[in-house]
Amino acid sequence: MTLVNGTAPAPTVGSGSGGGLGWALADSWTMTRRELARWARQPVQVVVGLVFPVMLLLMFGYLIGGGRGIAGEYVEFLVPGMLALTMAFGLESTMLAVTQDLNKGVVDRFRSMPMASSAVLVGRSVADMFQSALSLAVLIGVGYAIGWRWHDGPAAFLGAVGLLLLFRFAMLWLGIQLAMVAGRPEMVQAVQILVWPIGFLSNAFATPESMPGWLGAVVEWNPMSATATAVRDLFGNPGEVGGSWAAEHAGLLAVVWPVVLLAVFFPLAVRRFARLSH
Fold first, then answer.
1. Which residue has the higher pLDDT, 41 or 229?
2. How far apart are CA 30 and CA 119, in angstroms?
3. What angle is formed at CA 21 by the lines to CA 19 and CA 25, rounded to 5 degrees?
4. How far apart are CA 219 and CA 221, in angstroms?
């Protein structure tokens, strides 16, 4: 059986899939296994990705502190914000993998096979979602250890996790598009800076009410702020004390923003990938 990049079997496209969507899903799962096999050979990279958000949580929770404008324990405000921030960051490995495949001729090998053109990108994003779910589990465990608690039932907890993963999936496709705009691995770090405002111009660490008026307005409409606020509500944790429209409808915005990002960047990324691979 032919091996792809020495890590996973080449897609036996069409076998039992009936073509169409089933074909694309089978190809995407093959590419997902390829990425998971790559991570199995690079455990240090996976561990660093899990430890970094934990370090941020402990740093802001104990060293830097904060909590201006927050009614309640700061750690209960901080942990949901850090969960959302973790979903916005850590895109570099996916961006690097995409650009490396484009520059090392791997995509040319895939093009010679009868496979869905989107399978490489979809497989990469699904593999990243596995690691994102693991990162959430680790950070939730650390948060619990330092005193954070969720106060509503399991349905609300699962809803909060679902919103976090939805936001991550949307951010992944933004990152994939930026990676292909960069074109080369050495340019990824420069382009990734474009994602930083989404993470830091947010309510992850402080409430918009504690900021200057114009900055607070920007923060309130940040897609990550919507997710963080909605997750705090579902966890029963303290949030903003103001009553802006964005804060009151955070649950709606936490769904609308990722859907809009996906509607824009998923087709852009797939089309650009098809053009670059030719």
1. 229
2. 8
3. 100
4. 5
pLDDT band, very low/low/confident/very high, at 274 (cuts 50, 70, 90): confident
For the whole model, what pTM was predicted?
A: 0.79
Distance CA 199, CA 201 (A): 6
Q: How many CB atoms lie within 10 A of CB 98?
A: 28
Stated as kind and residue range, the H or E segment containing 3 is strand 3-4
| Distance, first Cα to last Cα, the chain | 26
Q: How far is CA 273 from CA 62, 122, 132, 177, in A?
A: 43, 11, 23, 9
Sorted by sequence, the CB contacts under 8 Å of residue 137 that are 6+ apart come out as none
DSSP letter, residue 11:
P
How far apart (Å, rounded) are the C-alpha atoms in residues 245 and 113? 51
Tokens of 28: 């995407």
